[in-house]
Amino acid sequence: MDNSLLPFFKPQGVVVVGASTSPEKLGYGVARNLVQGGYAGAIHFVSQKAGTLFGRPLYVELGQVPDPVDLAILIVPPQAMPAAIEACGQRGIGTAIVMSSGFREVGAEGAELEERCKEIARARGVRLLGPNCIGILDTHLPLDTTFLQPPMPTQGGIGFISHSGAFAAAIIDWARAQGFGFSQIVSLGNQTDVNETDVLPVLAADEHTRVIVLYMESISDGRRFLQVASEVTRRKPVIALKVGRFEAGQKAAASHTGALAGSEAAFDAAFAKAGVLRAETAEQMFDWARALENCPLPRASLRLRAAAHPSAQGGIAILTNAGGPGVIAADALETNGLRLSQLAESTRTALSAALPPSASVHNPVDMLASASPSQYAACLKILLQDENVDGALVILPPPPMFKTEEVAEALTPLIHASDKPVVIALMGSTLVEAAAQVFQRAGVPAYPFPERAASALGALAKRAEYLNGVQRLQTLEDTTNSKVRRLWTPSDLDELFAAYGIPSAPVKLARDADEAASIAEGLGFPVVMKIASPDILHKSDVGGVTLNLQDVPQVQVAYAQMVERIQTARPEARIEGVHLQRQIPQGQEVIVGMVRDPQFGPLMMVGSGGVEVEGLRDVAFALAPLSQAEAREMLRQTWAGRKLQGFRNLPPADEDAVIDVLVKLSLLALDNEHIEEIEINPLRVLSNAAIAVDVRVKFN
Amino acid sequence: MDNSLLPFFKPQGVVVVGASTSPEKLGYGVARNLVQGGYAGAIHFVSQKAGTLFGRPLYVELGQVPDPVDLAILIVPPQAMPAAIEACGQRGIGTAIVMSSGFREVGAEGAELEERCKEIARARGVRLLGPNCIGILDTHLPLDTTFLQPPMPTQGGIGFISHSGAFAAAIIDWARAQGFGFSQIVSLGNQTDVNETDVLPVLAADEHTRVIVLYMESISDGRRFLQVASEVTRRKPVIALKVGRFEAGQKAAASHTGALAGSEAAFDAAFAKAGVLRAETAEQMFDWARALENCPLPRASLRLRAAAHPSAQGGIAILTNAGGPGVIAADALETNGLRLSQLAESTRTALSAALPPSASVHNPVDMLASASPSQYAACLKILLQDENVDGALVILPPPPMFKTEEVAEALTPLIHASDKPVVIALMGSTLVEAAAQVFQRAGVPAYPFPERAASALGALAKRAEYLNGVQRLQTLEDTTNSKVRRLWTPSDLDELFAAYGIPSAPVKLARDADEAASIAEGLGFPVVMKIASPDILHKSDVGGVTLNLQDVPQVQVAYAQMVERIQTARPEARIEGVHLQRQIPQGQEVIVGMVRDPQFGPLMMVGSGGVEVEGLRDVAFALAPLSQAEAREMLRQTWAGRKLQGFRNLPPADEDAVIDVLVKLSLLALDNEHIEEIEINPLRVLSNAAIAVDVRVKFN
């Protein structure tokens, strides 16, 4: 964490520049929240008119404000902002929250003003948050620099970074009714200086923050975000809601890779590499956050993808008092890539003893509508003791015979005592209100429907899986710049590939029979010969392709015959000679590509190639640098990659060779920033090699 | 609608058998709800002990109950149920709600008891609802046969059919807090007699029901459901939440089609054909229902799929007072397949006049945080007048300067006056509570997040699209049984295909050169010859394949040469002769398949074929019978189908011929119930024909 940011989060004294005695003004709301929010440091006000506010003097000049003061909240008209920042610098205040709007978000003139503010701030050594933001909220310190209607959100373990102040404000109000709190909330606004990547380490270091949620509309510096987020996620879970897909116009692409890599592919790949969980909706982000804040993590083997190990019996147990919601939950777990536990024989016996004979003691465990609080507790205890149970989803619609809150009271001690995650589907509203409060107080995440509870368990499983596999990730720091780094040109491509150890089959032009023979010898036999003519599109139709030439004499004869055939068939065609390429045996084929993302750097692709690559969309993306494990994971995500292991009559091909090409191509891409796109289509995969047959490179 | 069901929904008099004076008993709750719920017909109670309850006599025998009585609610122990049903028959009561549990859901013994009840009911002419259900709720009649805690749900236009009583009960409680009501709720329980298909027409005929939601775990009779639901959806929207995916074990399949057609593919296809909207989650089902209950439908051209017509400018307008939520909404509309409107020049001019200069008058329209209730109203009015706007999503977080409910009040008259749908993202909780009530009273659907509002608009668009295309659907009634119906056997396959007009290239066995010549003449030239030997796997490796035989002499020579080659190369191999097939030119290829679903009948498939069909999963399903339009839609859903129109260097192929094969194969499948699976892989698609090259049929 950057120490110059410290006063934003732990100020010794705060001054509100633009404080107001009119309750409808923002400058009043901010003053009120600072005072009433319980902030323990010094609070000062600057206003155009002298007087008092909340028992404190209103200074007319910032210079009059006494020590201590290290954070300014600036609520002045945009035109007055440069002077206000200047004044901060003169007063020795190193951090300022620029709350006013009217800058970049309103057009070119505002952008210019914002740029001026930034320059002054930099010159004066003032760090800026905003403009166009609602500032910082810390429920534990406490500190509330916003103008939002009190009360402050309740204390909690969720740290919330938001590009949008309005979104943050709406979430704060919504969270009240949902019954969850926050540790810190940081509204970033236009991020003229401080951005989400700067704030991530602050929340990571905050003792009260257990999970970080991030609402983002863009990214300031993709590579730095990757690096910082990768470090933060090793310590605390980070969930991101990235919006703004619709705004990203598709740029013209020179390759299939470029066409397939929509703007979101790079974000997906960046979040995956950094271990950031990407939520699809706002509601989902907070559903996940509540589980990650409160629950222990399940074993990493929980998700279906791990079902490659059929011996693993782990999974989630569903405990319900009604069949229907149990079925909904089972479906939803599957949708979230989770397994249902196979309950142990002893578990089923113990459940049978605790339940009426017509209850179901298989998973989902259906206790029937008569289930009492003590039966709920007894059954959950039995389930959590089962080695095959990695977590539980408890379904709690209002029991016909008992109060829901009695069930909640019976369950919470068990949930606290367990090292396995338990989430609740608390179905209903008025009849479950008291139970909801019990769970809230106890820090047990409860959701109104089984689907949302299952989704939360899915996030826990993803988090566990990430922590388990974190050493499999290749980070930029691990890669040393290659010795082969130099400014390659289009004519050096074969050499470039050779330098990085990527096997390829170069295509060479021969202008006469002797040159053809000598080139063929250099390439190694057999070779393929194709007529080189800009006027002939379908070469094989006119005898312009000869396969399987085995030695020098065959090449010489073939050259003469081919030229003669073409001259006869198409007398008007210009003939430049022939193209020669070593003939690669048949095998499986994949496409391997790279497109340089402006934010995140080289984005690697692998999948089904050929001409239909864009139609099939059987491709996977990941950011360079790739580790072998990451490259292998990419192959797993595509059919083209999976079938390298063989499929029915299709013999296996050299998967490791493809992985090797992916890893090396990712290094090549990192080293050579003047290369914009690379596409190998196809990479021919044999039983013991993978060879780039056709390579296209776009230099920038 | 079956008239024998009428007393369930409009009874003249109701008797509770098993009424109880103990408030903790179900028999008390049911009696209480009947009386306090305001049911206007006669209410009678039967109990083991005489006495009174809610001012009415407790009879000890059903025979003592006076007229009118045509509906019985049976709350007696399972063992006593057969006698109770018998008594209903004797008393002339034609409908009975069997509320008790302890039947099929608890095992074999219970199932036997349930079967006995069913037989008695049938013999005595008593229709049964349940067992194991909570009965019927009608908020308008009113009638409440449940034991649920009062008050009854508020009146509304959503009719709700549920297989699960517990789910229905939880939803009723939840709906209270969400602020929406119901017209009727029917809990079906074990459906020993009355099932979801029986009840659909009842709700379709109910004047208060505007939309039907259906929670289902299984289906009783798939074909009948299809037929009935198809009729109902032409009048009223139906939304289904079908659960139980995880329970459906994958059966062993004889074909790729069978392997790809998981249990859910048939349900998806059935819902699509019947025009039933399939929701993914419970919350989504009711989000959609609230929009369909209250909003006019947008133009059918709204969804992105219609973007094939780039001239269409229609779409959704987003109106917001903050950028962030506007971006979320835009993304979510796209996720739901909806377009953003291109606002007309005149609209932007009008918006500019109504808003401050720094507001954004492009879609999403951002009025800025200062937006007043009258600005909200003025802008919505302007947007709804734009011809390019088919509907609006209004984002309403608490405005910093105004009360949210004032905005709500300003908007509702406009929304009522418009024939375009408007939904609200009302973000927050305590600060928007009053506004939520305004929208509830006005029947304007409001959702806590833009994503859910966008999903609701998506449902409206799907509904409009369905109604617009309803004539494109082929229904079973439209198809006359083919004249070619007969019991075909495996040896008749060529004839069968010929009878249905499906072009195929039969494979014939010739045992000597003369037979080969005569068969080849019959097939038409050119032909392909392949060695027929059970001992030779890779025929071409040993010279066992000869292509392009052009006439009788060539066939005779080829036969002799092939047999000699094989005898030399593989002297041990048994040679049965040669297989001859007309040689089909190269072209595009698709797979076309049929697997008979036990519930819904022939499920048709088309997509990318070859050996990799199961890996690529580029396939689409639909239920037979197929119209041309339905078959074309299947092709649109797959890459293999889309590329029939040509792709880059790939020339177009005869899409209509594929559609013709799909339509005819669906008729063949309907006519021939003894055929279990058919797979054409490949169907070779030329420029002016499609020919089945390899056909496999599984008879049952």
Notes on the structure:
The structure is a homodimer of 700-residue chains. Chain A is of the alpha/beta class and 700 residues long. The first copy, chain A, has 4 domains: 3-209, 3-Layer(aba) Sandwich (Rossmann fold); 301-471, 3-Layer(aba) Sandwich (Rossmann fold), CATH 3.40.50.261; 506-582, 2-Layer Sandwich (Dna Ligase, domain 1); 588-699, ATP-grasp fold, B domain (D-amino Acid Aminotransferase, Chain A, domain 1), CATH 3.30.470. In chain A, 37% of the residues lie in helices and 20% in strands. Chain A is built from 23 helices and 29 strands. In chain A, the strands form 5 sheets. A 7-stranded mixed β-sheet of chain A has the order 3-4-2-1-5-6-7, sandwiched between helices. A 7-stranded mixed β-sheet of chain A has the order 9-8-11-10-12-13-14, with helices on both faces. In chain A, strands 24, 25, 26, 27, 28 and 29 form a 6-stranded antiparallel β-sheet that branches. Residues 304-309 of chain A have low confidence and may be disordered. Chains A and B meet through helix 5, helix 11 and helix 16 of A and helix 5, helix 11 and helix 16 of B.
Question: Considering DSSP H and I runs of 4 or more, what fraction of the residues of chain A is helical?
Answer: 25-40%
Q: Name the chain pair with the biggest interface and residue counts per chain.
A: A-B, 82 and 82 residues
> Could you name the CATH class of the largest domain in chain A?
Alpha Beta
CATH architecture of the largest domain in chain A: 3-Layer(aba) Sandwich
Low-confidence stretches of chain A: 304-309
Biggest pleated-sheet summary of chain A = 7 strands, mixed
Structural class of chain A: alpha/beta
The CATH homologous superfamily of the largest domain in chain A is named NAD(P)-binding Rossmann-like Domain
What is the count of DSSP helices of chain A, taking H or I runs of 4+ residues? 23
Instruction: Kindly report the average pLDDT value of chain A.
Output: 92
Lateral arrangement of strands in the main beta sheet of chain A: 3-4-2-1-5-6-7
How big a fraction of the residues of chain A is strand?
A: 15-25%
Distance between the termini of chain A: 35 Å
Provide the domain count of chain A.
4
Overall geometric form of chain A: flat
> Any idea what the radius of gyration of chain A is?
32 Å
Number of DSSP-assigned strands of chain A: 29
Oligomer: homodimer
CATH topology of the largest domain in chain A: Rossmann fold
